[in-house]
Specification:
The longest helix is centred in the C-terminal third of the chain and has 20 residues, at 198-217. This protein has one domain: Aminopeptidase (3-Layer(aba) Sandwich), CATH 3.40.630.40. The termini are close together. The protein is 37% helix and 20% strand. A hairpin with a 2-residue loop joins β2 (27-31) and β3 (34-37). The radius of gyration is 16 Å and the shape is globular. It is an alpha/beta fold and 218 residues long. This is N-acetylmuramoyl-L-alanine amidase. One of its GO terms (molecular function) is N-acetylmuramoyl-L-alanine amidase activity.
Length: 218
C-alpha cells in the first residue's frame, strides 16, 4: 500500500529567480566534488510560457493525486514567485523528509531540429545504496508509465527515455530514491502546445502520479 508513504516533489526553478541573478548564480555543492549555480531561470516555450510555471502547476496536480491516495507529499517550494531554493537544499529537503521517492519535474529547452519527447534522469554511477537499484527502478517506472500514458521517449538525449547523469546536484546529493523527469521539449511546437494547456499539464501529472504510485506499491 502506498498510503502513509512520503513523496517529495521538486518543481524545477522558481518564478523569482530571474530577478535575483546574484543569489541564483552563487555556487553551491553539487556532489562528486563539483559546484553548480544555486539555481537557474529554466527555459520557456517560444511564446514565452516559462518552465518554472509549468513545473509548479504539474507538481501541484501530481501532489493532489498522491494526497488523495493517503500519500504524504512534501514540496521543495510552496509557490511560483520565490527564489530558489538552491539545488543542494532541494536534495536536503528530500533527505530530511526520509522520502520514499523524490521526483524532480522539469521541461527541456533543446534547440536541436526536431528534438522532442521526455526523458528520465538518474544518478550514475551511484554514490550510495538509494542511488543504486531503488533510483534506477524509480526512473524505469517513470519511463514505462510515461510511455504507456502516450508520451514518446526523447529522440535527442538519453537512451530509450533514460539518461544516466553524474552532473545533477539534486540526484548526486540525494540519500533517497530520486529521479528527474524532463517532461518534453518546450521548444517543440507540439509539446509546447500540450504544456501550455491545462488539459496537457493534467496528462503529464496523471502519468507521473501513476508512476510514483506504481513504484511505491512495488
Amino acid at each position: 500500500m502506498a498510503a502513509g508513504k512520503v513523496v517529495v516533489l521538486d518543481p524545477g526553478h522558481n518564478g523569482g529567480n530571474g530577478a535575483h541573478p546574484a543569489e541564483i548564480n552563487r555556487p553551491v555543492p553539487a556532489g562528486r566534488g563539483q559546484t553548480k549555480p544555486c539555481n537557474t531561470t529554466g527555459t520557456a516555450t517560444n511564446a514565452g510560457y516559462p518552465e518554472h510555471a509549468f513545473t509548479f502547476d504539474v507538481a501541484q496536480r501530481v501532489g493532489k493525486a498522491l494526497a488523495d491516495k493517503g500519500i504524504r507529499v512534501v514540496y521543495t517550494r510552496q509557490d511560483d514567485t520565490g527564489v530558489g531554493p538552491c539545488v543542494d537544499r532541494r536534495a536536503t529537503i528530500g533527505n530530511e523528509a526520509n522520502a520514499d521517492a523524490v521526483v524532480s519535474i522539469h521541461a527541456d529547452g533543446s534547440e536541436a531540429a526536431g528534438a522532442n519527447g521526455f526523458h528520465v534522469a538518474y544518478s550514475s554511477p551511484p554514490l550510495n545504496a538509494a542511488q543504486g537499484a531503488p533510483s534506477t527502478r524509480l526512473a524505469q517506472t517513470l519511463r514505462d508509465t510515461m510511455r504507456t500514458s502516450g508520451f514518446s521517449a526523447a529522440n535527442y538525449i538519453g537512451t530509450n527515455g533514460l539518461s544516466a547523469r553524474a552532473d545533477l546536484a539534486g540526484l548526486n546529493l540525494s540519500t533517497r530514491p530520486a529521479a528527474l523527469v524532463e517532461c518534453g521539449n518546450m521548444r517543440n511546437a507540439t509539446e509546447a502546445a500540450r504544456m501550455t494547456s491545462a488539459d496537457g499539464r493534467q496528462q503529464f501529472a496523471s502519468a507521473i502520479a501513476a508512476a510514483i504510485e506504481a513504484y511505491l506499491a512495488s
